[in-house]
Amino acid sequence: MRLYEWLDSRLRLKPIRETLLDEPIPGGASWIYVFGSATLFLFGLQAITGMFLALYYAPTPDHAYDSIQFIEKEITFGSFVRGLHHWGASIMVVMIGLHMLQTFLYGAYKPPRELMWMVGVILLFITLVFAFTGYLLPWDQNAYWATQVGINMVGGVPVVGDFLVRVLRGGESLGALTLSRFFAVHVLFLPAVLIAGIVLHLFILRRVGPAGPWSDERAKLGSETFAPRQVYMDAVVMLALFMVVAALALTVPFDLADKANPSDTTFVPVPEWYFLFYYQLLKYVHGPFEPLVTWILPAAFILVVFFWPFIDRNPARNPAQRRTTMLAGSAFLMVVFGLLGLSLRDLYAVPRLDPSVAHGKAVYVQYGCAGCHVIHGEGGAVGPDLSYVADARPDREWHYRHFQDPQAMVPGSIMPSFPLTERELHDLTSYMLSLTQGR
Amino acid sequence: MHPEAEQNDSSGFYTPVGSRRKFFHWMTGIAASLIGVGLAIPLVGYVISPAFKRREQSWIDVGRERDLPVDKPKQLDYVTSLKDGWMETKAEKALWAVKQADGQVTVFSPICPHLGCGYRWEDSDRTFKCPCHGSVFDISGKVMAGPAPRSLDVLPTKIENGHLLVIYKEYKAGLPKAVEL
Chain B residues with CB inside 8 Å of A78's CB? Predict the structure, then answer.
C-alpha cells in the first residue's frame, strides 16, 4: 500500500483507477455480462500458451511435426501447455458465441452501440482466421489435408479465386512457403490486428457505456460500479474456465495424426468442430450452384451480420417486442446446430480404427504372416487370400481357436501355430475381423 | 438498490460496502492467484525442462581390438547419432586408441585439453602434437611441453567379444583437472 501511495503521488494513478474500476453498469452487475471478459481471458491464455509453444516449435515442413512431437513427449508439461492452447481455442469460440448471443438477445447492438457490434464481428472473423492458420502448424495429415480443402474452397471465389489460392499457398502447392506464412500470420500479424481490434472494441464500450438490462424497471434501480462485484463475477468465471480448459488438456489426449504426406490422397481430414456446419453444408451442393453456396451465401450472410444494427431498425430491446428478430436468430441457430449435429453423426458413423486392430496388424507384420497370405495384393500366395476374410468367416471364436491350433479347425492345414500371447491372439483376431468389404 | 449497498458519494453510483465489499475483493484475489499459480508452475517447468537434460550416452563399437597395432596410436572413427532437441544428427569423431604390449587399450579424446584444438600423432618423434599452441604429449598422454594444463583426456572403454566399445565425452578445456561438460 505504501508503494502504491508512492507511485500514486508521482504518477497520479487515482483517476486511472477510477476510470477502470468505477465504470457504471446500468441495473447492476450480473452473471449474464461475463462472456466478454471470459473471451478476453481466453485470448490472454491463448497468447501466453502460444508464446511458450513457440519456444520449441519450428515452422518448416522438415521439423514442424517432429518439434510438436518433441513438445508432447520430451518437454515437462509440454502436452499440457499444448492442450491448453488447443482446448482454449475451442472454448474461446464457445465464449464468443455466448457473448454474441447475449448481445443479440439484449439488443445491445442497437444505437448508440452499432460500432461496437461491427468491431465485434470483425474480431470474430479474426479469431476464425487464427483457428484456420493455427490448424496447419502441427503439419500432420489432418493439418495438411484440412488446410488443402480450406484453401481449395477459396479457389471457388469468382474471378480472383486462383489468384487468392496462390497467394495463400505462397506458390503452386501447399508446402514450406505455406507453412511459414501461416506461422507468421498466426503468431505475428493476427495478434497485432486482434489486439488493436480489442482495444477499439473496449474504447467504444467505455465511450458509450454498457447497455445494461432491456427492461426499464431494472435499469431504474440505478447503476452499480464495475468493481468490485462485476470484477468478482468475471474473475470467478475466468477461474472456472481455466479449470475446464486445464481438465480437458489433462484428460483428453489430442494426439497427432501421421506426419503430413502430400502423396497420400486417401486421408480424410476433419476440420475443427466450429467449421463443421459449413463443411456439412458443402456436402449438399454440387455442380453450377456450388459457388453460390461456398461463396455468395456466406459472403451475403457475413454482410448481413456485420450491418445487422442497421438492418434491424426496431428500437425496442425487450425480446418480447422483437418477434421477427428472435425468429430469425433462432432459425439461424437451428440451421447451424442442425448441420453440426448431422456432421457429427456422419463423422462417428465412419468406423474409427480400433487400437486393438492396429496392434493386430502389427502382430501380423511381426510374425511374417504376409510370407504366405495376401491382403490387398501384398504378400505370398501360399495360404488363402485374407483381404476380405471376415466376410467369409465372421466368427470371432473360430479365428481365435484357429490361431491357437490351425489343424484343429482346418484338418490338414499346413499353417504353423505361432507362440501368440493372449493379447496378441485377441488383437490379431480383431484385425482379421476388420478385413471386410464394408457395408 | 441492494440492501447492503451504499451510494458512492463521488460518482453517484451504488457499490457494495463493508464486509460484502471485502468478500468480493478476496474472491477476486483468490481466483486470480489460483489461475496465476496454475499457469506459472507448468510454464516454468516447460521452459527449464530441456535445459538440464543430460545427453544419453551409450557404448559405441569402434572396431575390433585385434586390428589395433601394439604401441602405435591409431585413429578410430566414432559415429553416433546425436539428439539435438527434435533433430537427430550423425556425429563423427576421430578418437586416438593406443594398445599396450599387455593388450590394454587406452582411448584418448581427440580434443587438446588446452583450448580444444584437434591434435595429431607424429610418428617420427613418437609424440602427440597440437598445432594450435604447440602442446606436446607422449604416447601415454602425459604433457611433455607447451601450455596444456593436464594430460590427454582418457575415455571410458571396454572390450566385448573382441570389439572395442567407447563412450564419447567432452571435458572442459583449460583446467588442470578433467571436468566433464
Answer: 46, 49
In Å, the largest CA–CA distance within chain B is: 103
User: How far is Cα A406 from Cα A404, in angstroms, rounded to an integer?
Assistant: 6
CA distance A94 to A104: 15
Angle of helix A161-169 versus helix A141-154 axis, rounded to 10: 150
Q: Provide the residue ranges of all domains of chain B, joining segments of one domain with +.
A: 5-50, 60-166
pLDDT at A293 over 90: no
Q: Do A239 and B2 touch (CB under 8 A)?
A: no
Q: A112: cis peptide before it, omega within 30°?
A: yes
What is the topology classification, in CATH, of domain B60-166?
Answer: Rieske Iron-sulfur Protein (2.102.10)
**Cell numbers standing for residue A38:** 471470459
ipTM over 0.85: no
Number of C-beta neighbours around residue A392 at 10 A: 11
- pLDDT tens sequence across A100-112: 999 999 999 999 9
| Cell numbers for A402 | 484357429
More confident call, A161 vs B8: A161
Whole-number Å distance between alpha carbons of A404 and A421: 10
**A298 against A138, higher pLDDT:** A138
A63 in contact with B at a CB cutoff of 8 Å? yes
Distance from chain centroid for Cα A219: 38
Task: Give chain A positions within 8 Å (CB) of B50.
Answer: 56, 74-75
More confident residue, A427 or A122: A122
| Interface size between A and B, measured as CB pairs under 8 A | 100
Smallest Cβ–Cβ distance between A77 and the set B32, B45, B86 belongs to: B45
Distance separating alpha carbons of residues B164 and B174, to the nearest angstrom = 29
Our separate counts of H helices and E strands in chain A read 22, 2
Distance between CA A54 and CA A258 in Å, rounded?
A: 21
Domains of chain A (ranges; CATH) run: 22-276+283-317 (1.20.810.10), 355-433 (1.10.760.10)
